[in-house]
Amino acid sequence: MIQLRLSAAVLARTRFAYSPLAEAAKSLYVVHSGTIHPLHRGWYDRVRGDLRRTDSDLLRAVVPPGGHVAEFLFVGATSIETTIEDQLHLVATWPHAHFLSELEQAWRGVGVTPAARRQLEDPDAPQRVAEELERYWQRVLAPYWPRFRALLDADVAYRLDRLARGGIGALLSDLHPSLQVTDEALHIRSVTDSDIDGDGLTLVPCVFVWPRLWVELGLLGEPSLTYGARGIGTLWAERPAEPDREDALGELLGRSRAEILMGLRLPRSTTDLAYEVGLTAPTVSAHLSILRRSGLVTSWRSGRRVLYQRTALASMMVSAGADDDQTEASG
Question: What span, in angstroms and rounded, lies between the C-alpha atoms of 261 and 308?
């Protein structure tokens, strides 16, 4: 059992962060497991060819199938603006003795090829691993980061709403089934017994960590919980077909506004939407202003970005349009 005492200092300094490095590590774990869960199949089908252009032997040694995941792959997530470059700098400068001892834990009962072991026993191995993780990130994750980021933003918005309605207990209570919140502590069922001390807690929603919960004990700062973000099942859902001139929603709102509204199932920034619908950012911004004044879109600031999402009324309009199309098709 792992226990984190929920002191006033911890509660006051609880915050959210995103971890591109955790996404890289856990996506490698998914790939190396040999069994791709249907929730991640959409991503895997898109990147299967790109995976062949990475150093699979080295990456498999760093994240072996079924083994422990080294803790240096979860450090450095300090805010929702954390970048992969920030985290890989920490990996590259990780003390080699500590680096190797964590990998030795990962290899227990799993094994590693002699060639990979020789590479990782070299004192320059942390730098080499950081470089290969950077290549992996750019080839198989970076193209989809805006999509991941939208899901993470939606999770944080949901949890902040729970915090406002029910306090810290409501925010934490449904993070993961293994987690239990009491008035004094956060209890996590685990094979490890540990009491975590710290002045704060970082909550890290993650796409690929699902269905597990990862506890980082605060090697470089505050302890963190990396948990599966809500809505992963919607991540690879096919985007609705473009509304045509005969579409009811398109006739009501105009083609471009209807397409923007359909793209706002998850939070998006103006730049994300412009890329997705093929319009300029100023044009999208003008449409969003009209939709917001009409009560169809809501917005809020997340770090340096302004995010937009359709309201409940807009979702009902989109669903009604889809239902009408299905009725016509079945008739």
Answer: 10
